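// run 5 | inverse folding | seed 20
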């Protein structure tokens, strides 16, 4: 995955944690839409892995 893609995903994750979902989508959407198949698979894996983290964070609150 390109560094710029990972940086955008991490920023979007941080915005999501701050309940700023619209901004998170605006940050992540361009990199998701321009990803090739290989990077798309990496993005999907990254999102799946972090979705579990978000669910765990919510359970501990």
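// decoded
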């Amino acid at each position: 995955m390109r560094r710029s893609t990972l940086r955008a995903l991490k920023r979007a994750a941080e915005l999501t944690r701050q309940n700023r979902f619209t901004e998170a989508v605006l940050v992540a959407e361009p990199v998701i839409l321009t990803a090739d198949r290989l990077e798309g698979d990496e993005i999907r894996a990254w999102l799946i892995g972090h979705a579990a983290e978000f669910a765990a964070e919510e359970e501990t609150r």
